[in-house]
Amino acid sequence: MKFTKLFLTAAITAGLSSAVFAADYDLKFGMNAGTSSNEYKAAEMFAKEVKEKSGGKIEVSLYPSSQLGDDRAMLKQLKDGSLDFTFAESARFQLFYPEAAVFALPYVISDYDVAQKALHDTAFGKDLIQKMNKELGVTLLSQAYNGTRQTTSNRAINSIADMKGLKLRVPNAATNLAYAKYVGAAPTPMAFSEVYLALQTNSVDGQENPLATVQAQKFYEVQKFLAMTNHILNDQLYLVSNETYQDLPEDLQKVVKDAAENAAKYHTKLFIDGEKELVAFFEKQGVTVTHPDLTPFKEAMKPFYAEFVKQTGSKGETALKEIEAINK
């Protein structure tokens, strides 16, 4: 049970009494991100605001760096009620609903405004939120921007032609593999922990990640070219276990919801401001930043969109059409 009964410890010393009160609700927030990440900073803000606005009734402890398992494991823990809060990208729900991969199709989500509308304004997005709640046992509290993936390399990328044959490290995810494949690179799945050394030794020619990750992992030390390919936009959802949320009285539900929305705004600002500053930072480190024409990159992805629709049927087709309509 999340609820811990209020207790009072009284000690009388020299005629004085003192009382120590515990929080009514001791809750856990698990995440993959480490303590130096923007996600962790935003989660800290969330925990602080929840404690303050609840008058100390809710205490949220943070468990970063996959201490409680990966995101798939933590989503299951939310459903089971053994974990209270976690993060997950919208596209990650393709684990349960293949059509949710639409959120990560390269060049489909053009900016964060589109990402928000895709999740909250389309029939597809609204249905997904409802299924998350009814079938997976999680409630969506808020959505934040979590960076846009760019491409670093050991040679300049001035156009899509420069991608040809580029041995590009990507995570073992269909959409990232497709990005590399369809723009002409050689997709090379590899564990994240191995990437720095692989770049340093030229075992791979490049990698793709949000700029904050490039800085945090110091990939700029071993990659002297950065292409602003803007191929996949990442969001981050603040999720709460239904069991936890329903256990809270309405006033505390509102505290949690408001805090998550405020934390998401801060989360988004950290990434937007950070990306602006990071381009200049990388240039100061001797990295050459290029801005290739992205129209050919988008065109190259069309066969993959067709493949996505073939695999996901009418649900995927509808999702893609609804999101593409937002971009127009």
From TrEMBL:
Gene3D superfamilies associated with the record: Bacterial extracellular solute-binding protein, family 7 (3.40.190.170)
Binding site for N-acetyl-beta-neuraminate: 89, 149, 169, 209
Predominant location: other
CDD domains assigned to the protein according to its UniProt record, in alphabetical order: PBP2_TRAP_Siap
Compartments, as annotated in UniProt: Cell envelope
Chain segments annotated as coiled-coil in the UniProt record: none
GO BP field: transmembrane transport
Keywords of the record: Signal, Transport
Similarity comment: Belongs to the bacterial solute-binding protein 7 family.
Listed name of the protein: Sialic acid-binding protein
